[in-house]
């Protein structure tokens, strides 16, 4: 893993919405816009993309579309209904309700869909699936698609984990990319357009002043929790490895103050697991025994033992190596307790899963997907926008 070096651009990074405003919204001049956004759609100084487009004299904001967690980003429920944006009176259509792809009726009167949501750089975080589904709908309905790009907050260099098996696509696995893809939403949009053969009229308004090596806190941009349980850049960096566990009978800290910064279960021995994991000397991380009782999600109101994570050096920390190391210890140490049947849902790779369940070493597990990862890196190179 490459270190995120101090950037000459620190404090000057402009997300796509700021570039659009600076350019007088000329890229959307005369457009009837459907805006796919949430509370993370903010300019550098904290103004919402909704307000900026609504106030523009050259753009007509017709409709708003919201992703998982709602427009305000504070809901963690299975179905979210439509709404109205209070300050503008513009209808808000939920893309996490009865449908997850805009219908022709929803696109009526719209000639341009604009996407402005902060992603966190992990395949199974669903905002990129919402984007991909909307791109398909746009292509089918002859609607232009514009991405207001944003930095990858856990840097745009590091790529890790197995590539999703073709045929396993889902809302938590939209496309055949690895768990940690190292791309921005704009770059992913270019990949989706080309590799899915959408022939979409796509425009990416690029970030200015961002280098691939930078984490979000190198940019001077504010951290905004993109979802209720993604509460820090630390959690986002842990998520590609720790998030893999959350479909199984392990608490990943939902229902605590620090989701994804600890794991546990009533059947775990936290002290033993911490000792075993620390003995592996994994790069950039240490493990501390902990006890907690989550008030929501897995094992709600049940006392759990587990481990808390401390990233000591993010320049060498490897989330996937860490996540797979934990999973391997659960396979070896708790074969009768850890329920592995749903681990595949987010891992998304059958060969890697089989190696894990067979007790292979982490290096052997990682070896199973290196060929696919190398092929992805070659594909990815065609769509990168930043140095």
Q: Kindly report the spatial arrangement of strands forming the biggest sheet.
A: 3-4-2-1-5-6-9
Q: Which fold name fills CATH's third level, the topology of the largest domain? A: Rossmann fold
Strand-residue proportion: 15-25%
* Main sheet record: 7 strands, mixed
Which value, in Å, is the CA radius of gyration? Answer: 21 Å
Q: Could you tell me how far the N terminus lies from the C terminus, measured between alpha carbons in angstroms?
A: 16 Å
Number of domains: 2
Going by CATH, the architecture of the largest domain would be 3-Layer(aba) Sandwich
Helix content range: 25-40%
CATH class descriptor name of the largest domain = Alpha Beta
Structural summary, described in words:
The chain is α/β, with parallel strands linked by helices and 387 residues long. The chain folds into two domains: 16-225 and 379-383, 3-Layer(aba) Sandwich (Rossmann fold); 233-348, Aspartate Aminotransferase, domain 1 (Alpha-Beta Complex), CATH 3.90.1150.140. The chain is built from eleven helices and twelve strands. A seven-stranded mixed beta sheet has the order 3-4-2-1-5-6-9, sandwiched between helices. A hairpin with a 6-residue loop joins strand 3 (83-84) and strand 4. The longest helix is centred in the C-terminal third of the chain and has 15 residues, at 319-333. It is globular, with a radius of gyration of 21 Å. Mean pLDDT is 96; it is low at 1-10.
């Amino acid at each position: 893993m490459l270190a995120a070096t101090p950037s000459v651009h620190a404090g000057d990074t402009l997300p796509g919405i700021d570039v659009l405003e600076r350019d007088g919204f000329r890229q959307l001049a005369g457009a009837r816009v459907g805006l796919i956004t949430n509370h993370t759609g903010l300019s550098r100084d904290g103004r919402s993309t909704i307000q900026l487009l609504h106030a523009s004299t050259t753009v007509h904001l017709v409709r708003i579309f919201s992703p998982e967690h709602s427009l305000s980003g504070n809901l963690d429920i299975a179905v979210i209904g439509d709404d109205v944006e209070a300050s503008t009176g513009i209808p808000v259509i939920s893309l996490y309700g009865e449908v997850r792809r805009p219908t022709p009726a929803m696109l009526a009167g719209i000639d341009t869909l604009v996407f402005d949501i902060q992603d966190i750089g992990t395949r199974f975080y669903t905002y990129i699936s919402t984007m991909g589904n909307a791109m398909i709908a746009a292509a089918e309905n002859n609607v232009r698609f514009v991405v207001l790009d944003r930095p990858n907050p856990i840097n745009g260099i590091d790529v890790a984990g197995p590539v999703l098996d073709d045929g396993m696509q889902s809302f938590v696995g939209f496309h055949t990319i690895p768990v940690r893809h190292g791309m921005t939403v704009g770059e992913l949009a270019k990949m989706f357009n080309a590799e899915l053969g959408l022939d979409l009229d796509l425009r990416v308004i690029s970030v200015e002043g961002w280098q691939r090596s930078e984490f979000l806190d190198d940019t001077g941009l504010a951290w905004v929790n993109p979802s209720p349980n993604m509460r820090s850049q630390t959690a986002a960096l842990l998520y590609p490895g720790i998030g893999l566990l959350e479909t199984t009978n392990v608490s990943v800290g939902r229902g605590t103050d620090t989701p994804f910064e600890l794991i546990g279960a009533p059947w775990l021995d936290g002290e033993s697991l911490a000792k075993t994991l620390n003995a592996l000397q994994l790069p950039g991380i240490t493990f501390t025994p902990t006890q907690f009782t989550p008030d929501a999600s897995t094992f709600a109101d049940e006392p759990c033992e587990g481990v808390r994570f401390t990233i000591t050096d993010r320049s060498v920390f490897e989330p996937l190596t860490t996540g797979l190391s934990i999973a391997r210890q659960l396979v070896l140490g708790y074969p009768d307790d850890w329920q592995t049947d749903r681990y595949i849902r987010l891992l998304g790779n059958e060969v890697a899963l089989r190696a894990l369940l067979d007790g292979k070493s982490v290096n052997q597990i990682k070896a199973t997907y290196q060929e696919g990862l190398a092929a992805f890196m070659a594909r990815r190179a065609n769509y990168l926008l930043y140095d």
